[in-house]
Every structure is written in C-alpha cells, then in structure tokens.
Inverse folding.
C-alpha cells in the first residue's frame, strides 16, 4: 500500500450521454472505489455514485453535485468535509399519494437502519411538471415547468435548518417506449439523467447547498433480458436511498468569490481547495465539460479513459495534453504513478532519449 500523501483527483463521467461505464445505475461505482484507493482523495458527482437502492460509503470519496464540482474546479468553491449533514427532503406536489408514501418510508428506513438525520420534509406548492427530451445526438435532457416552486421549497428547507437537500420529483412514465427498452437491455441512454441534472444544478446553485435528485416513477414489469448495469434500478420502488446516503456526508460548499487569494482555505486546513486538485479523470470522448477545461487551463494532468459514449470531444480535437488510459484500471495505475512521483512516461516503451539543447 502506498504511503504517499493523497493526490486529490476529480472523476467526471458526464450524465445523459450513454457512457458504457457510468451511464447506468451506479455502474461507475467500482471505478470510483478503485480510483479513490489509488488517489487517496476522490471528488466525484452523484451520477457516478448513485445506484438506486445500492450505494457505497467511502471517506475518501467526496460526493459533489455536478455544477458545484465545475465551480470547485474553476476556483469558485472550496469543499469542507463534514461528519454528517441534516438532510431536507423536498417532494414534488405532483407525486401521487401511494408513491409519496413509498419515498417517505425509504427516508424512515434510512433514519432507522443507517442513522441518518433526515428532516424537515417539504412539499412544493404546485407540481413541478418535469418533461423529458432527447437531442439530435440522442443525449437526454429535460425541462422543469415550475422552477420557482422548486426554489421556494428549497428556500424553506434551508430556513428550517437543512444543510443538504434531497429532491424527489415526479417524472413521466415511459414504460412502453423503445428508448427505455433499449436502455434496460444495455444499448441506450439514460433518459432521465438530463432532466435530473437541470433540477439539481438549479437548486444547488441557488441555495449554495449540496443537493441531489431522485426521480419518482411507477415500477416497471420485470424484464428477463435486463442488462446488469440497469439492475440496480429494479430492486425497489424508489431511487432515493442512494441519494440520502450520498448527501449524508457530502462536503459543505464554501464560496471563494470574496476570497480570491484562498486565505480562508489556508486558514482552515480542513478545507479542500481548488489549488489542491492534482489530476482529473474523464471519458476520452467527453472532455469538453467545465471541470475538465478549468483544470486543463491550470495544467492539471488529465487522464482520458476509453469509455465509449455519444460524444467525440477528444483531447486531440481540443488541443489538450492528456494521458491515455484503456480502462479505469489503467487510470488507477497512472494515478498511483503521479501520487508516488513517478513519471508516466517512464512506464511506456520505447522511452524517448533526452535531447540536449544548445546554450
């Protein structure tokens, strides 16, 4: 086992673009666990960690909503690890009573079995009216018909003392569509992910709190051809348990807008601040996101992993230097090399000779 100091690393797997790893119900978790072990400190987003009824707690993994992760990478936020969060539960008024009860029972189960601090519970003053769409490329996205209602409910939860917020909104059922069948059988895109990102980005950016989203949907009929990557979504009636577990120790978001010299971060050794980011890991075809580009501007090493998706935004297309990795296992090896101070170039052959310069 390495004895070197942790190497704070970002793991980004964009949502709604059909990544072969990380595009399903928590199937990015094994990669996150491996990279956390290799780096000693991993910052990633709910899309990677959420497995519906399945979850994994690891003190080396920091669960940070996607837009907050982008702001962290850009130097606008620091992260303050905490022992626990007080979780506010925000429910969409459009959820029917039986499904609402299922979600409340999940929250009660997490209180009784896992010891999470959950409450208060607030229902929006009108249905949120979520709609789902797909772009020409097949990527998923969505709209929120009543964003002000979402924000009012979030503001109320914050005023009542919630320090992190789990959102449950009613999503349209689509159980007969070809797109859903393709996804369940391993050849499609998560049709919910784009709309989920809209909701969590909006709320977290408005409140400055850790937030994550769980869709409320009617249960589906069993599918004997189900892809293993989609199986986590079939285990229960809700997607809420993983969100509550992830948020329960999500780090506080500390704004650095009035602290450009990071004096606050330097005065509080417990803070994880943007300048500490030492590597970023992302799919080789999805390198155009805010976190990756912000890190590239500062010269942070980028590990581009072969993880097929709908995009082809590569290091070559962007003119970015990158360390290629054929798998997340190879990416973990590169992180260990960086952590131990070993040049990745020394691990490949042929090894190019030095070229002395004339004085």
């Amino acid at each position: 086992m390495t004895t070197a100091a942790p190497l704070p690393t970002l793991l980004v797997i964009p949502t709604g673009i059909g990544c072969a790893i990380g595009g399903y119900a928590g199937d990015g978790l094994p990669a996150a666990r491996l990279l956390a072990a290799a780096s000693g400190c991993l910052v990633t987003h709910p899309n990677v960690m959420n497995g519906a009824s399945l979850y994994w707690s690891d003190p080396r993994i920091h669960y940070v909503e996607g837009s907050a992760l982008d702001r962290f990478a850009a130097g606008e936020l620091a992260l303050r690890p905490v022992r626990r969060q007080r979780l506010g539960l925000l429910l969409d008024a459009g959820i029917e009573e039986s499904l609402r009860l299922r979600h409340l029972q999940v929250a009660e189960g997490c209180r009784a079995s896992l010891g999470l601090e959950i409450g208060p519970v607030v229902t929006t003053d009108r249905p949120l009216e979520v709609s789902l769409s797909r772009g020409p490329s097949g990527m998923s996205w969505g709209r929120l018909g009543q964003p002000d209602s979402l924000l009012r409910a979030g503001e109320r939860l914050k005023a009542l003392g919630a320090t992190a917020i789990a959102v449950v909104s009613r999503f349209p059922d689509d159980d007969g569509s070809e797109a859903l069948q393709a996804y369940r059988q391993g050849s499609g895109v998560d049709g919910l992910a784009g709309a989920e990102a809209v909701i969590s980005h909006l709320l977290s950016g408005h409140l400055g709190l850790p937030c994550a989203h769980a869709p409320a949907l009617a249960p589906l009929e069993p599918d004997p051809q189900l892809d293993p990557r989609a199986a986590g979504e079939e285990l229960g009636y809700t997607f809420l348990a993983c969100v509550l577990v992830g948020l329960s120790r999500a780090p506080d978001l500390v704004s650095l807008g009035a602290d450009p010299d990071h004096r606050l971060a330097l005065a509080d050794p417990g803070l994880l601040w943007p300048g500490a980011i030492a590597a970023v890991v992302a799919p080789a075809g999805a390198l155009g996101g805010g976190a990756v580009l912000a890190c590239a501007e500062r010269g942070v090493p980028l590990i581009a992993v072969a993880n097929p998706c709908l995009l082809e935004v590569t290091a070559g297309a962007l003119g970015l230097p990158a360390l290629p990795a054929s798998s997340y296992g190879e990416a973990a090896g590169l992180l260990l090399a960086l952590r131990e101070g070993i040049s990745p170039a020394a691990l490949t052959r042929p090894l190019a000779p030095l070229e002395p310069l004339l004085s």
